[in-house]
Amino acid sequence: xxxxxxxxxxxxxxxxxxxxxxxxxxxxxxxxxxxxxxxxxxxxxxxxxxxxxxxxxxxxxxxxxxxxxxxxxxxxxxxxxxxxxxxxxxxxxxxxxxxxxxxxxxxxxxxxxxxxxxxxxxxxxxxxxxxxxxxxxxxxxxxxxxxxxxxxxxxxxxxxxxxxxxxxxxxxxxxxxxxxxxxxxxxxxxxxxxxxxxxxxxxxxxxxxxxxxxxxxxxxxxxxxxxxxxxxxxxxxxxxxxxxxxxxxxxxxxxxxxxxxxxxxxxxxxxxxxxxxxxxxxxxxxx
Length: 287
Known about the structure:
Elements: E1 5-11, H1 18-26, E2 34-40, H2 47-52, E3 58-59, H3 69-79, E4 84-88, E5 93-94, H4 99-109, E6 113-121, H5 128-137, E7 155-159, H6 160-165, H7 176-186, E8 190-200, H8 207-224, H9 231-249, H10 261-286
Parallel strand pairs: 1-2, 1-4, 2-3, 6-8
Antiparallel strand pairs: 4-7, 5-8, 6-7
Helix pairs in contact: 8-10, 9-10
């Protein structure tokens, strides 16, 4: 009999966290049956060996060629047998034994729901500014609810039928989750945030890594949303986010060491995003 839920776990050199993730997945108490499908993108550390120590996990080889998130996800979905597909990155550690039930229950209960996503809590070693960003994006959900749109695939769930009928884009670099979810909302479907489904997941990116990430997101934004942001909007957003950073740090003396870095961090983010968007827009014009 096919399981009700398929958990897709993407991994790449995640041996620092994957052991805890797999241990937590094995402890899940869920009234519905589930399977775990692993798709590893050429790990060179102990990741694949750790996965192999769980014989019940089915492994799917990723598509040949350079890593493209959407293409990898579409290949994983094809291997799934569950009615609901859960995406949980190898470094996203479920914090409760009922995480799976909490995350997937809305999809079994509400016909109009396309997807649901979990609450991502920062790791113990997360910087104060990373913690602040997580509180805004996740937390009780009230802040993100005011944004134009927000969705994160790192720990989420969607209907397999919907994923098969409307696969992930294979042309965006790193915003395949947002692009897919926006299309779903455009079809009249709903996306649900489930704050009670908690995972530990955060990254202390270096400034170089931060710039690379936001450059890619900026490039994706042209395909998803349209024209690149101008300088006024770019600098305005960097300034507003810096102000929020300082207001968050002010009552937290342990975080004061991040005061000086906040403006540079936000300027790097916003300028890299704009540069990525401009480069992508230029390529579209050339083509």
